[in-house]
Structure formats: C-alpha cells, structure tokens
Amino acid sequence: MSTLSDILLSIVSLVRPRRCAVCGGDLPRGVDFLCTMCRYKAPLTGYWREKDNPMTERFAGLVCVEHASALLFFSGGSGWRKVIHGFKYGGQWRAAYLLGRQYGRELRQSGLYDDIDIIVPVPLHYRKLLRRGYNQSTYIARGMAREMGVGVDTRSLRRTRNNPSQARKMHSERWDNVDDLFAVRCSAESLRGAHILLVDDVFTTGATVVSCIETLHRALPECRISVAALAVVRRGLGLER
Q1: What is the pLDDT of residues 96-107, one digit of tens each?
Q2: pTM score, two decimals?
C-alpha cells in the first residue's frame, strides 16, 4: 500500500515530470538528477586516481601543488555543458552541489586526498556574488565536503576586484586579468600549516587558480595546496579536443 509521500510524489511527477539534467529524459522514481545512461556516459577524466596527470603537469614550473584533478571534461555542445552553464549563470545551484558530492565520493575513494584539512572555494567578488546570488564553487565545495568529512572555508580568501569574466578572453589576456586578484584575510590563521583543497568550477588556462595559489602561499607559506576543478577544458591542458 502506498504511503502518503508516495502518492504526493506520483501527483507531482504527473504535473511536473522529473527530467535528467543532461539529456532531458524522464527520471524513474528513486533516481535523482541524472539518468543511468548519462551517468554511464559521463566524460569523466579519472585524474583523481593518478598522482601525475595532465592537471598536475599544467602547474609544473608555475606553482607548487600536492595533487590536482578534475571530475569532467568540459565539452562544447554537450548536455554536460548545459548543466555547467546552468549552475554558473542560470541559478541551478543544486546541480553544483550534487556534482560536488559525486566528486567528493571519487576523491575519498582515491586515497590521494585523505589528508585534506579544509576546502576553500575560489571566491567571487561581492558585487558579482550579490548579482548572481551565490558562488557556484561554494556549492561544489559543500557537496565535496559532505562526502569527504571536512569543513569549508569561504572567508579566508577574498577577491579584491571585480575583474571581467574570463570566458571570452584570449590565453594571454586571461593571465593579465588575474594579476593581484586575491587576498588572504588576517583571520586566516586556521589555514596555517593546513592541507587546503582549492575548488573551482571550470579549469581553462589555470590563470585564476594559479593566482589563488600564489596569494595563499605568500600569506601562508607553510600550507600545502591541492586543486580540484569540477570540469576542465582539454585545450587548457594541451590535449586534443
């Protein structure tokens, strides 16, 4: 016999069918966010299982990182790009959180990230935060933290100016756009000596993340930093499309 919640869920499903975030297909009862086929076909990088991978190589000679990985390859024209654009620009913060949880499970199982002390999302400037209503990287970080059993610090690292979006900038312009972009608050003593997991949404050239790492290392030279991006653009790693 159906419970009241089952009956209500059935009524809601009739009025507003639940759809897969990637392909738009109907989701069966008990399945959330992504259908089985889209989960199976997800463009996963697998980088979180490898200490040496194209993400860590990207930082060589620039900044020191312990580990670096991305969950997905960012592919133009795919349903996954629609999902990422949805939480970056369309207010779909729940997608960022759920993908963060999936990523957190992968990192926990890999064993490489077992000694992470705290997760720090790449911050938005307060003006952009007010306009958008939330920082998508914060929701990714919270999802990861839920699975990894660590805390999230959204206060210690701040963005000092509201720089233009990186999305349509050329490679060299991206690096010029992030000079002296971040600062560490005086209250960041809790990060001293910690292994920090720096979280971003999409890794393209790495300019923003490198600027964050440089800022953290100047203020907290004894901390260790790893990087986790939800998605990575192949061209940013020198890989074919």
Answers
A1: 999 999 999 999
A2: 0.85
